[in-house]
Design a protein that fits this description.
tRNA pseudouridine synthase A, 9 strands, Alpha-Beta Plaits, PsdUridine_synth_cat_dom_sf, alpha+beta, globular, RNA binding, 5 helices
Length: about 240
C-alpha cells in the first residue's frame, strides 16, 4: 500500500532533501524515523530535490508498506524527528500514485529583507545596502511568461532531459520591509528559482533593464544570467496533485 506524507522543514542544517553520501539530508531523517517506528526498512520518494539550505513549508513524499498504520503515527514520527522537520499528515493514495511524477505544479517563495534584520538573517536575503525597484522586477516577471526554455537559469552539468518549463505565476509583492517573490510552474530546474531571483535583483538595482531579460533567456547560457540568490531565502511552499 502506498502512503503520502505532507511535511515541512527548515533546511539550514541539511544538504538538501535527497540522501547523499557523507552529508545529512531531510530524506535520511525521514526514512530513519519511519523505519524505526514501523520496524521495517522504509524508502521514500520526494516531490522534488531542494538544494542545500533551502526550506520547505509544504512538500510531499510517498512510501510503501504492507503494514496497517496506527492512527497516532504522525505524533510518533514528529516525536522521533528533529525539531526542524515537522510532519502534518500521512494518508493513503492509489498504489501507483507518485509524489514526483504526478505533481501538476510546484510553487516557491523567495524572501528579501530590505532592512538589516537580525531575526531573519538565516531566513531571508538581507539586501538593504542598495534599494530595489519592485516595479521593474514585476515588469521582468511578465517577460518570463513569453518563454518555456529556461536553460539560462539551469545549473550546469545536471542530468536534465529537458529545460522546458511552463510558467504559471511570477510576481513580486512588498510586505513592509520585505519583498516576496512567488513563482509557480509545472516543474523547475536545479537552481532555477535562485538564478531567476539573482537576475531580478540585478534588474531591481538598475544593473540591467527589464528588457535585457529576453537576451538572458534567449542566450540559453547560465553565464548570461545573474548570480544565484542565497539558498536560505528560498522556500518550497506548495506542490499540487489531482488526488481524485
Amino acid at each position: 500500500m502506498r502512503y503520502f506524507i505532507e511535511f515541512s522543514y527548515n533546511g539550514k542544517n541539511y544538504f538538501g532533501y535527497q540522501i547523499q553520501p557523507n552529508a545529512i539530508s531531510v530524506q535520511e531523517e525521514l526514512e530513519k524515523g519511519l523505519s524505526t517506528i514501523l520496524r521495517e526498512e522504509i524508502k521514500t520518494t520526494g516531490a522534488g530535490r531542494t538544494d542545500t539550505g533551502v526550506h520547505a513549508k509544504k512538500i510531499f513524499a510517498h512510501f510503501d508498506t504492507e503494514k496497517k498504520l496506527e492512527e497516532d503515527l504522525v505524533r510518533k514520527l514528529n516525536s522521533f524527528l528533529p525539531s526542524d522537520i515537522s510532519v502534518k499528515r500521512i494518508f493513503r493514495v492509489q498504489d501507483d500514485f507518485h509524489a514526483r511524477f504526478d505533481a501538476t505544479y510546484r510553487t516557491y517563495e523567495y524572501y528579501i529583507s530590505l532592512e538589516k534584520n537580525p531575526f531573519t538573517q538565516e531566513l531571508a536575503w538581507q539586501h538593504w545596502r542598495k534599494p530595489l525597484d519592485i516595479h521593474k522586477m514585476n515588469d521582468a516577471c511578465k517577460i518570463l511568461f513569453e518563454y518555456e526554455d529556461f536553460t539560462s537559469f539551469a545549473k550546469l552539468h545536471t542530468d536534465n532531459k529537458t529545460n522546458i518549463c511552463k510558467m504559471y505565476k511570477a510576481e513580486w509583492i512588498q510586505n513592509g520591509s520585505e519583498l516576496i517573490f512567488t513563482v509557480s510552474a509545472n516543474r523547475f530546474l536545479r537552481n532555477m528559482v535562485r538564478a531567476i531571483v539573482g537576475t531580478m535583483v540585478e534588474i531591481g538595482s538598475g544593473k540591467i533593464d527589464p528588457e535585457d531579460l529576453r537576451k538572458v533567456i534567449e542566450n540559453k547560457n547560465r553565464n548570461a544570467a545573474g548570480t544565484s540568490a542565497p539558498a536560505h531565502g528560498l522556500y518550497l511552499v506548495d506542490v499540487g496533485y489531482e488526488f481524485g
